[in-house]
Amino acid sequence: MRRVYMDANATTPLLPEVMEAMRPYWLEHFGNASSIHLHGQRARTAVDQARETLAEFFNCHPAEVVFNSGGTEGDNTAVFGLLHPGDHFITTSIEHSAVLQAANRMAQYGVETTLVAPRPTGLIDPTDILRAIRPQTRLISVMLANNETGVLQPVEQIGKIAADTGVFFHIDAVQGAGKVSLDVRGIGCHLLSISAHKMHGPKGVGAMFVRRGTPVEPLLVGGSHERRQRAGTENVAGIVGLGKAAELAMHSLADGTMERLAALRDRLEAEILRLPATGVNGALIIDGHPERLRTERGGVEGPAVAAVAFSNSNSVPRAANTSNIWFDNLEGEALVIALDLKGVAVSGGSACHSGATEPSHVLMAMGLDKSRARSSLRFSLLKTATDADVDHVLQVVPEAVEHLRAMATVAAGTLG
Ligand SMILES: Cc1ncc(COP(=O)(O)O)c(C=O)c1O
Fold first, then answer.
1. What is the pTM of this model?
2. Which of 141, 159, 342, 373 is 20 to 30 A from 396 via CA?
3. pLDDT at 410
């Protein structure tokens, strides 16, 4: 059976070049980067080279790059490393749990958090951030691209607000890195977190931009690694893999890969939206009728889709690879399973917390009702996706949707 993986926002495979770059650092060049002999020097040189690449990727100085274990550590470091009792923290209700749970923990230590809600489009309005600022506000944390909808947040404008008000600004760029260019200088943020496994690098390694002079306390203490900002023997092979992945990502951002990917995503989306009672979460997009644009009205009863004429400039900016679609009258989880049986891997609009399936906090924050959030699916394309992948998905989705909806109707009749 043909298998198509459309869950790139969950994780991505290593690109072969990344695997090849890493291989010697597990086998011959296995040294500890802190050792002074040749083995150690080789490892140190490799880490330094990766640091240079990451500095280019972020647009910062190499001394402002800190390697760590990934996105969760970066997000936790920003929250735990900057906030003190009595401080006020601003973040959004659509952040990853690595930020939200860290904020929850800080509540025990007397840090109050304001969660700014998105608009129904999935966009955070920078004026809502500005309005939330108080004299005690020390940190703002906003994601670059949302992991569920792909919606790109206005981080430049938020960076300006942070600069004008003297508040530290962290960006969770885990889902944005490799999909849009990063420019920490241009944005004016103090901290930014990325994770290698979301951009064709290895799992368990990531990096953080820490602007020089930002008083962030390390999460881990011990040795003097990473300029005393992150203790622990460096994951040399992982860091080399992240460096290679960042180098390849910079090429992809410049060579039209993202435009090609957006075109594939748009075709997939437009074709799926031909099915009745479907719509996109987090975007105004062109549907099967080129002269019309559809807009999501989460939670509103009545016609499933409001067809409204908008100019293209009204579209919400999104990462090129992501599409989040609701399919009324079915359970998203059942559709995920049905598609998996047909060889298509996607994610649903709900998450399992302590054994109970809860609708996605992101979609709920955007104003969807529970059943529509539960009926939503995320398609996230790898940058290596092909037309044939999209064709296969388009072949199996309508069939699976019709089948599940027919079963739901039969079940409702039996029960009713
Ligand atoms: C937006 C976002 N932030 C943080 C993380 C956590 O990253 P990691 O898996 O590297 O810990 C993820 C992973 O899904 C994510 O999507």
1. 0.92
2. 373
3. 78
